[in-house]
Amino acid sequence: NVSVVDLAADGADSQDGIGLRIKSGAKSGGTVDSVSYANICMRNVKFPLVFDTNYGSAGGTSYPDFSGITVKGFHYLGSQRFGGGKTTFVGYNDNGQKRPISITLDNVVFDGAQPSFTGLTATHFSLGPGPVSFANKLVPSIKDDVKVSGSPGNGTPVDCTVAFVPMKSVVPEAPF
């Protein structure tokens, strides 16, 4: 069981900026279960959400299995450089093994531009009861083993007004 709560992440518009990420592959896989993220504020990140079971080189028999993942209260404020950023939801479907990601998205809100997908396969989504701003992009697919259940509703995004403080307010001699 892993729980991440009250996180503020500023990627500074870095080309390599990654927000929430769980990655694995058949060489180093296994079970990842009961991981929750709550009250997350994020901005200026190229890859805000990355859940990838096909990371790295192929081979191996430690097949990754991601289940019980919950993102509740995630607010992405956007990026001047990357807009809504790119997300990845890639469950394992290789070597005759099918291990879709099981993930719940509840009150997951991207301001302005919505994310694009670098991968969307073998993932079973449970949405709501709060809003999921990109829910219309999560299209069920038998071919790609994408399932979507639940109905996102209305709600207020996580309040990020005090999540990002200027460094100078904490360290007066800071150059930024």
Describe this structure in words.
The chain is mostly beta strands and 176 residues long. It has a single domain (2-165), classed as Pectate Lyase C-like, CATH 2.160.20.10. 2% of the residues lie in helices and 47% in strands. It is built from 1 helix and 12 strands, in the order E-E-E-E-E-E-E-E-E-E-E-E-H. It has a 6-stranded parallel sheet, with no helix packed on it. A 4-stranded parallel sheet has the order 2-4-6-10, with no helix packed on it. A two-stranded antiparallel sheet has the order 7-8.
Relevant terms:
single chain, 176 residues, mainly beta, Pectate Lyase C-like, 6-stranded parallel beta sheet, 4-stranded parallel beta sheet, 1 helix, 47% strand
Give a short synopsis of this structure.
The chain is mainly beta and 176 residues long.
Average pLDDT confidence is 94
Shape: globular
Strand-pairing-aware structural class: mainly beta
Helical content (DSSP H or I, runs of 4+): under 10%
* Topology order in helix (H) and strand (E) letters: EEEEEEEEEEEEH
Q: What's the Cα radius of gyration?
A: 17 Å
The percentage of residues in β strands lies in over 45%
Our count of helices gives 1
Number of self-contained structural domains:
1
Tell me the CATH architecture.
3 Solenoid
Q: What is the count of β-strands?
A: 12
The main sheet orders its strands as 1-3-5-9-11-12
Highest-level CATH class: Mainly Beta
